[in-house]
Specification:
homodimer, alpha+beta, six-stranded mixed β-sheet, 23% helix, 31% strand, elongated
Chain lengths: 300, 300
């Protein structure tokens, strides 16, 4: 619901004088007042203001600060619980102005920063922003000889074998990341089979202090010839799972690689259904899009 | 490695005139030049500049823009691949100045925005920021009677049973979120047993357009009395797994709730080891901290 806060006629004059372009303001002629900062109210009772939709290019930080102070007072009186302020990069000076009222960054992407202020007396119930990056590795298992493709990273611990992998791009499915990263790093084409393990780690230095989820997938090879990326890797080989899993080689793999190698050996012997989380695509209730659900398959 | 870029003496005068506080600048006396924007170079060849450490309070957007333009030219000549610019909220006006050189927001939290500019001729290899929020639900299974605690959300589809849950706080382990949310929503105390399923969904409206990972955990009840949160739920009951799993009730649960109920019924009959991803805590290689690894337990 789009609402308009009309208050303090005096600010109209200030905004006009500073913007020098009253004609572009959303004036409601003949009403004796005009919308100052138009905001949309959501079902939780929070107001959202899109600064890009308001002609503020020539407005000073000081004038904006007065305007926002008045609007916030009004929203409080109206019982709004919070204010979301979307600030385009070109108007970034208004973020500092908002901060004097208590606004803080919620998140920023590309050319927009989103600030937020909790208004209600009740404890803050604002939702957080994305907290995790997702890294995915692919264990490409050749069932004909029990070998798997492993790499030694150029930038990581030397002489340590691990499964090729990397970070998911925004909007990329877990299985797609595994297949893409394996191809980029090793030259081996593969297809997604299942999800094998999930690791959660917090305060991750490689994630700007946020959390990291590291997922290992089982992949089936579609080609076997290695042409590895020399920018990312120093070595890349097909190695026997038994060698990666064995205690004698524990100093040449990461603990998680060794564990997943043992899982895969178990899968080779007893069937991969004993270790897999298989994937099912299910339509989302309202959007008509699909999501991916991973869990143990029930074969009985 | 901390390095100092010394270039264009003329800018020293400009900065001094505008800041009015030359004594606070990091002047290297007797060198004939002073560091303009000190930056740290990382192992990838990118420069990081912390504006909070530089006395720029009284510097105008225009003067900063000139200063940054010169520094960026210098970093390019030095072969730097990228520039990370940390901008405190109080100096947010400099984000707009940086944007005219091509800087864009990478992320922002609390009182700092981070902008970045890729400098190298090679394709951009900048790491992204956190892409996923993590939501966790808890299926508290009473093995003595085959019942599980389910709720009907106040803000979601009416008359639909689902497992209680909510978003992980930053730095919170998956199992802790499940136990905390179940207690908050239902009043039932429980302990973490295993991870059962993972769902990935992109462009999530409840995640500010980012991605959502929804994890369902199996929990063991430590208490059974329900005292549910009336702000979040309209109903909360112990319900038979068979009722949730059956096709006759499919319109009263979400598809994922029905699937996990069928998994849990299978676990009740054949042992939970057939459906669980169990958790293992493993020390991180360098930090001495622990991470949580979830995968199928090998019972053989």
């Amino acid at each position: 619901m789009r609402v308009f806060t009309r208050r303090l006629l005096v600010l109209r004059a200030a905004l006009r004088a500073l913007s020098g372009s009253p004609g572009r303001a959303r004036v409601q002629e003949g009403r004796g007042a005009e919308p100052l900062l138009p905001g949309a109210v959501d079902r939780y009772g929070a107001v959202t203001v899109e600064l890009k939709d308001i002609p503020l290019e020539d407005t000073s930080e000081g004038a904006f600060s007065s305007l926002l102070t008045d609007c916030v007072s009004g929203w409080k009186l109206e019982g709004r619980v919070a204010v979301w302020l979307h600030v385009p990069l070109a108007l970034s000076r208004f973020a500092a102005a908002a901060s004097t009222l208590g606004f803080r960054y919620h998140h920023a992407r590309e050319d927009t920063a989103t600030l937020v202020l909790w208004l209600a007396d009740a404890p803050c119930r604002l939702p957080g922003y994305a907290t995790h990056q997702v890294g995915v590795a692919g264990a490409v298992v050749d069932e004909s000889n029990g070998k798997v493709v492993v790499v030694q990273d150029r930038n990581k611990t030397l002489n340590t074998w691990k499964f090729p992998g990397g970070l998911s791009d925004q909007g990329e499915n877990i299985g797609c990341t595994a297949v893409r990263e394996v191809l980029e790093e090793t030259g081996v084409r593969s297809e997604f089979q299942s999800l094998l393990s999930v690791r959660q780690q917090h305060d991750h230095p490689g994630a700007f202090g946020m959390s990291d989820l590291y997922v290992i997938c089982r992949l089936r090879p579609l080609s076997r010839r290695i042409r590895f990326c020399r920018e990312e890797c120093v070595r890349c080989e097909w190695v026997e799972l038994a060698a990666l899993a064995g205690p004698a080689h524990s100093n040449q793999t990461t603990p998680i690689t060794a564990r997943v190698a043992r899982l895969l050996l178990h899968g080779l012997e007893h069937g991969f259904h004993t270790i897999d989380l298989s994937m099912e695509e299910i339509p989302a209730v309202h959007s008509g899009r699909f999501y991916q659900l991973y869990h143990r398959a029930l074969t009985s």
